[in-house]
Amino acid sequence: MKRRVAVLGATGIVGQRFVQFLADHPWFELELVMASERSAGKIYAQAVTWVLEKPIPKKAYELKLYPIDIDLVAKEKIDIVFTALPADVAKELEPQLAKKGVMVVSNASSMRLESDVPLLNPEVNADHVDAIEVQRRNRGWSGAIVKVPNCTTAIATLSLKPLVDVFGVGKVIVSTMQALSGAGLTGVPSMFILDNLIPYIEGEEEKVENESRKILGTFNGNNIEFNKEISVTASCHRVMVLEGHTEAIFAELKSKTSMDEIIKVMEEFKSNKIKNMGLPTAPEKPIVVRREIDRPQPRLDRLEGNGMSIVVGRVREDKTLNGVKYVVLGHNTIRGAAGTGVLIAELLVKKGYA
């Protein structure tokens, strides 16, 4: 039987991606779309400024848009709520939903670093999902809150995971070139970004540095422990690209190896936590490695694996860190947001949590 799902914050870019992924999903039935009061009462197609590359899905077109209403979510017996809300709003609303027995898959940054809240990048740390049981005991609710990582972090940690498992990783330096869509529909005025680059994104560097260590950490049965072997430093920049975050990553490796072996380990990704689970949104190859000297590129590579694969290129030895340096690209609103959110929900169903 299909799970009944809702999207809160359904008119923003990430909300639109959730609607796109859920409208024709084999496991989920999109029952409710919710947004701000000013949009409420209209049908979804009238209220949304649709900016995605494909048209609004037919199943979502005529859905009535409601104001955010926790009681309505409970009344409609919604199994899973996907939230694309500002962090301050999510911090207040999401615990109320969990208290109503609802499973919340959240794209908001609030609560991401709390030790009983799974911060899931499924191929990397699907086993952290079992922290839900601890969360329920600690907080006394029957629902749960599970977090989608920051977009940049989701891409970086997926590329690092096979290296961590096979060679061991110490210091990591991340320098990003981040797409405009990551700032939302009205996030970066054209006069600021045309003919320009903005070398600052508020809060982004801290998210990458902290979330990466949690995602690459371990669940010990009582809480999620941050990885103490890895230290991450980041510099984040907004560039004039519509979609697709590009990251230059420099990683210290604890075992000496060859670049050919690194490429092989990335492509094979034997420690993929959800391999053979049959999750519909999971890409066949989570990590694609390109050999061309000028790849990956956002326009050419962001939709690899329906936007759920990351693309690695320019794999080279790093003599300064005694490790490897490479470029990785991922679709920020799919792999870095809604696509991973839907993949998390599929994992929750598979594991019996939803």
Automatic annotation (TrEMBL):
Q: Where is the Semialdehyde dehydrogenase NAD-binding domain?
A: 4-132
Per the UniProt record, which EC number(s) apply here? 1.2.1.11
Where's the active site on this chain? 151 (acyl-thioester intermediate), 245 (proton acceptor)
Q: Which residues cross the membrane?
A: none
Q: In which pathway does it act?
A: Amino-acid biosynthesis; L-threonine biosynthesis; L-threonine from L-aspartate: step 2/5; Amino-acid biosynthesis; L-lysine biosynthesis via DAP pathway; (S)-tetrahydrodipicolinate from L-aspartate: step 2/4; Amino-acid biosynthesis; L-methionine biosynthesis via de novo pathway; L-homoserine from L-aspartate: step 2/3
- Write down the chemical reaction(s) this protein catalyses: L-aspartate 4-semialdehyde + phosphate + NADP(+) = 4-phospho-L-aspartate + NADPH + H(+)
> Could you say which residues bind phosphate here?
112, 207
Regarding protein family, the annotation reads: Belongs to the aspartate-semialdehyde dehydrogenase family.
Q: Record-annotated residues binding NADP(+)?
A: 11-14, 38-39, 181-182, 332-333
The UniProt record lists the keyword Cell membrane:
no
Q: How does it assemble?
A: Homodimer.
- Pfam families in the cross-refs: Semialdhyde_dh, Semialdhyde_dhC
Q: Where does substrate bind?
A: 178, 204, 238
Q: What is this protein called?
A: Aspartate-semialdehyde dehydrogenase
What task does this protein carry out? Catalyzes the NADPH-dependent formation of L-aspartate-semialdehyde (L-ASA) by the reductive dephosphorylation of L-aspartyl-4-phosphate.
Cross-referenced SMART domains: Semialdhyde_dh (SM00859)
Query: Which organism does this record belong to?
Result: Ignisphaera aggregans
Q: Name one GO molecular function term.
A: aspartate-semialdehyde dehydrogenase activity
Sorted alphabetically, the Gene Ontology BP terms of this entry are:
'de novo' L-methionine biosynthetic process; diaminopimelate biosynthetic process; lysine biosynthetic process via diaminopimelate; threonine biosynthetic process
Q: Which UniProt keywords apply?
A: Amino-acid biosynthesis, Diaminopimelate biosynthesis, Lysine biosynthesis, Methionine biosynthesis, NADP, Oxidoreductase, Threonine biosynthesis
